TrEMBL record:
Gene3D superfamilies: von Willebrand factor, type A domain
Taxonomic lineage of the native organism: unclassified sequences, metagenomes, ecological metagenomes
Positions of the VWFA domain: 95-290
Family annotation (Pfam families): VWA_2 (PF13519)
Transmembrane spans: 12-29, 60-78, 310-330
Family annotation (SMART domains): VWA
Keywords attached to this entry: Membrane, Transmembrane, Transmembrane helix
The protein's name in its UniProt record: von Willebrand factor type A domain protein
């Protein structure tokens, strides 16, 4: 009785195909019984000699089996369900927007093996910690580019990390303000709330505009955190075709990490500045914020029953019945 009470079809409209398929089987059987109309044109004794399957197997017909195969297929597609599994009705509504700097200076090797590789490692750590948070990723150089919009598919984002390199950018540049504005747009499009923006950069060329963009995001209840990639001593900047970038005096241009500038950006955005060594503490803060947001929800303990699709259990029977249809001379 419990089984009958919980039994239902998840996609019942597929059942409407059954009368059509049964009618088609009946019509095919009638047509085959009349030898496709040849019995009206050829003498019965001659017709039996012309049949390829011989007369001894005439009493075996595939049409009931064909009807069974079609019936099993339709029932499987209709999704018979008699079991339930509990599932959480609420997911944390925290969102993390990750902003990666892909300017030429990110190829500097003051960090091993280089800055951009270490930044990708940091992104991987952030993705591992995301859990219930929805995550988005964009990269910027002269202009911002969306890698992924807001999503809870962290595994897909992780597969997109290895190709991220300054060399894939169509033009060189280091403008953070457009990237922050673009991040805000993606957050709004994804319906993000309680959003934490994490900028991974070694510096930017538009401080005034970047500070204004960070202040605007903070006014919208978005927090801008900054992860500094690089060292204060810096390293030469590689250039296309080999060699290093030189200044007007012919000396090597060193890309140094301007910690004061990055700290000011974080302060303007209401967030924290950390270097790579301090990244675990920032991750802990992000997780604490997400956990606190979840606990504040009134629906945190609500669960719903999820119907399990039992159509898969009909597939072995379907395959077995289909195999019998391969008998030579039936179809």
């Amino acid at each position: 009785m419990d089984l009958i009470q919980h039994f239902q079809f998840l996609r019942p409209f597929w059942l409407l195909a059954l009368p059509i398929l049964w009618g088609l089987s009946f019509w095919l059987a009638r047509r085959r019984a009349n030898e496709g109309g040849w019995a009206q044109l050829i003498d019965p004794d001659l017709l039996s000699s012309l049949r390829l399957d011989g007369g001894d197997n005439h009493h075996w017909t595939p049409w009931p089996l064909l009807s069974l195969v079609w019936t099993l297929a339709v029932l499987a597609l209709a999704g018979p369900s008699w079991q339930q599994a509990p599932s959480i009705a609420y997911r944390g509504n925290s969102t993390w927007m990750l902003v990666l700097d892909l300017s030429p200076s990110m190829l500097s090797a003051d960090l091993t093996p280089d800055r951009v590789t270490r930044a990708r490692y940091a992104l991987d750590d952030l993705l591992n910690a995301a859990k219930d948070a929805r995550v988005g990723l964009l990269a910027f150089g002269e202009e911002p580019y969306t890698v992924t919009p807001m999503t809870d598919d962290v595994a897909t984002i992780r597969t997109l990390l290895p190709p991220l390199n300054p060399e894939i950018m169509p033009s060189a540049g280091d403008n953070l303000a457009p990237a922050l504005e673009h991040a805000g747009m993606l957050i709004k499009q994804g319906g993000g709330r309680n959003t934490q923006i994490v900028v991974l950069t070694d510096g930017f060329a538009d401080p005034s505009a970047a500070f204004a963009a960070a202040k605007k995001l903070r006014a919208q209840n978005f927090t801008v955190n900054v992860v500094g990639i690089g060292t204060r001593n810096g390293a030469p900047v590689s250039q296309a075709g080999g060699g290093f970038v030189q200044n007007a005096q012919g000396k090597l241009h060193l890309a140094r990490l301007d910690v004061d500038q990055l700290q000011q950006l974080a302060a303007t955005g209401g967030g924290r500045y950390v270097d790579l060594a301090q990244l675990p503490s920032l991750i802990a803060d992000l997780q604490t914020h997400a956990s606190r947001t979840t606990q504040a929800s009134e629906n945190k303990n609500i669960q719903v029953a999820h119907k399990l699709d039992g159509g898969i259990w009909l597939l072995p029977l379907l395959l077995l019945a289909t195999a019998f249809l391969a008998r030579r001379g039936w179809l």
